[in-house]
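User: As part of a screening pipeline, I want to sanity-check one entry by hand. Below is the sequence and the SMILES for fe (ii) ion. Please return the complex as structure tokens so I can compare it with the automated output.
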Amino acid sequence: MPPVLNEGQMQKIVSFAEERHRASDFNHALDHIHLTVKLSRYLAGKEDADNEICTVAAYLHDIAKGNSADQPKDDFAELKKESDGHGAIGAKEAKELLEKLGAPDFFIDQVHYAISQHDNDLPKMTKEAAVLWDADKLQLVGPLGFARIFAYYMVYVKKDVFHAIEQARYWEEFFLERFCTDTGRSIARNLQQFTERFFRLCDASRNGRARQLL
Ligand SMILES: [Fe+2]
Ligand SMILES: [Fe+2]
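Assistant: Here is the complex for your manual check:
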């Protein structure tokens, strides 16, 4: 299928996202956006989802989070509710941008839906929404997930190493059960094999079980 957007339209979307994320907190900085785009493209190929919709949704998915260096303290806990707000707000802003750029309605609707569903625990009804969820959440499991969640809790919630480790373990388990695509699920399991041993060794160290560390 030929691309829906031309190069100029795509460049405006990328620039908009880059501008929004220039001053964002470390978990929503540009590296997170670029990695979400790369993972989304990979997953889209494997899962037969629309690559262009996945790419645009990935670029724009956190625009409602990208304009502040401050982070709400209950960032992760909000996922348990139907929606934490930045998905819905970002989806609306993405829709307005795409309308201004002259994108067709079906394309706008798909991007809007994927973004609106990336921050809640509801079933994802399109392949593209499933791909965005998985690309985003693959950065919250395994070694990178540990680093991001650990840093988040230490910086924004409580300067307590063991609390931050426990939270990283809790959220990894939470997300592991929620991957939507076969490819995302198998990458997540592979990443978790590393952190499983890591968390076991953390426990043994914390409790002084030296024999288990030999
Ligand atoms: Fe988000
Ligand atoms: Fe994100």
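Points to compare against the pipeline: The chain has nine helices and no strands. The chain has a mean pLDDT of 92.
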